[in-house]
Design a protein that fits this description.
Length: 239
């Protein structure tokens, strides 16, 4: 479901197994466990890259698992449960004491897009893969923390409108042009190479991890409040 590799100060978290990497309680638990390991092992200069094997970065919540409840009410309950379970993943990424990079080499849909957007930097491929929030098409509303994440991470209201109210499928070129991703590259190898290069350059700065995390939380106050993340004050002078 997930693997974690450590190369010096670089952590590489990979979604493995089932091609669409749909989030169900088992996958969410695995993801949280590995993120906890990353946080526990963090040192000055650490950086996280999250990527996925196969055609998909992630196709979002496991709707088949939800519908297996056997009734409309049961499916709705399971979907709400997944949204609640997924919330700590976003909180952990927002409070992780290091820079984070999402290497998007395939489709990032709904909660998959949300996972990617929870990183500091998004790098995407041009030749394959989309960013897509299909909730308006499948008649599912969004949790408050996802609304806050998109509002504070994507400043252009017209981009959010197109993503949420039109169900726009955004490819790499457009995502880069509209400021949703940092950069888009021609293929998977180029995305991985660019992600590692960026991570190495960020790691060389050897920022104080807790200070980095607190500054990040300060950038997204509404999201931090919804996620229940407290703020700390650090004054560690290096000048």
């Amino acid at each position: 479901m997930c693997t974690l590799e450590k190369r010096g100060n670089l952590f590489i978290l990979t979604l493995t197994g089932e091609d669409q990497h749909r989030f169900n309680p088992d996958l969410i638990s695995s993801l949280l466990d590995l993120l906890s390991q990353v946080k526990a092992q963090a040192t000055s200069g650490s950086v996280l890259i999250t990527l996925a094997q196969g055609k998909f970065f992630s196709y979002g919540f496991d709707l088949d698992w939800a519908q297996a409840a056997g009734s409309e009410r049961g499916a709705a309950k399971r979907l709400q449960d997944m949204a609640d379970l997924f919330k700590p993943v976003i909180a952990t990424l927002l409070s992780l004491p290091m820079p984070t990079i999402a290497a998007i080499t395939g489709h990032a849909v709904a909660a998959g897009f949300t996972l990617a957007l929870s990183h500091d930097y998004l790098i995407m491929r041009k030749d394959r893969g989309i960013l897509w929030m299909p909730e308006v098409d499948i008649a599912v509303t969004l949790p408050d923390y996802i609304n806050a994440l998109f509002k504070e991470k994507i400043g252009d209201a017209s981009v959010r409108r197109d993503l949420f109210l039109r169900g726009l499928k955004m490819k790499g070129d457009e995502a880069e042009k509209r400021g949703v991703v940092k950069a888009a590259y021609d293929g998977e190898a180029e995305v991985r190479e660019a992600s590692v290069c960026l991570a190495e350059n960020l790691g060389k700065r050897k920022w104080h991890g807790e200070v980095y995390a607190e500054i990040r939380k300060g950038l997204y106050p509404q999201l931090s409040a919804i996620l229940g993340l407290s703020r700390k004050v650090y004054a560690i002078a290096r000048l």
